[in-house]
Amino acid sequence: MSSSVPADMINLRLILVSGKTKEFLFSPNDSAADIAKHVYDNWPMDWEEEQVSSPNILRLIYQGRFLHGNVTLGALKLPFGKTTVMHLVARETLPEPNSQGQRNREKTGESNCCVIL
């Protein structure tokens, strides 16, 4: 599928905790919440064992960070016409942004001056 990704679309290869993967095409304007809803509505047959009760608990993880619902693929500057890998997990709540980093800074005494993206 990834060899024929339209130049104006982003192909997401989503990986479940079980290791199962599936690819979906999205627009750069699609948000994390849009993606969760689309995947929920088009749940792959071979993911049946991992089926969730609501799209609201599906979370995307990209480069080790949870994506909040209103973040668009375009805002992440993902390459058009290519495949990007993300993890898909079922989780009721999201950690607060940078909460882990804040705890680490408190332990090490580092300053709060900079946010690493």
Automatic annotation (TrEMBL):
It is found in: Cell membrane. Its main location: membrane. This is Ubiquitin-like protein 3. The keyword Membrane applies. Keywords: Cell membrane, Lipoprotein, Membrane, Methylation, Palmitate, Prenylation. It is a lipid-anchor. PROSITE patterns: UBIQUITIN_2 (PS50053). GO terms for cellular component: plasma membrane. InterPro entries: MUB, Ubiquitin-like_dom, Ubiquitin-like_domsf, UBL3-like, UBL3-like_ubiquitin_dom, UBL3_Ubl_met. SUPFAM superfamilies: Ubiquitin-like. The gene is Ubl3. Residues 10-88 form the Ubiquitin-like domain. It comes from Neopipo cinnamomea.
